[in-house]
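Record minuted for everyone:
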Amino acid sequence: GGQYESQQSSFNSMMLVLSVAILLVFGVLVAQFRRFVPALIILSAAPLSLVGAFGLLLLTGTPLNVSSMMGLILLIGLIVKNGIILVDYAHIVTDRGVDVVDALIEAGTVRLRPILMTTLCTLFGLLPLALGLGPGAEMQKPLAIAVIGGLSVSTVVTLVFVPTALALLAG
């Protein structure tokens, strides 16, 4: 009973931290773009990407624990980073007078490489941890697996869902 209570308390604390992280990230996005719609669209990529995190945890038989919850919190920032890279460039292009759809296409073309490179560097950096290589890696393995699964899905979500949603809401 005591261990279960401790685990429930830890999960409740992590959910509070996750909620605060989402609110803070949303605040930063609104300040960055000075609009709610791009902030909401970028942040809406997070729940879609969590499917990848939970899927890989399930696929590998890794339990949802405090370490994997920390990975989910970390994932929120990583997902948003890719969205900012794409949407910020699209805003720069639209400020030059280009149509929103054309600006999103150009942003996708120009920012594809930086998004893929930062994502791949993160994934490859976490791979030894996810494989349990090195001393102490077993404790943080769930964190790495959650981030790898979520980040893999979030890259596709960022490159497809975010521009599509922005184009639909703009036109």
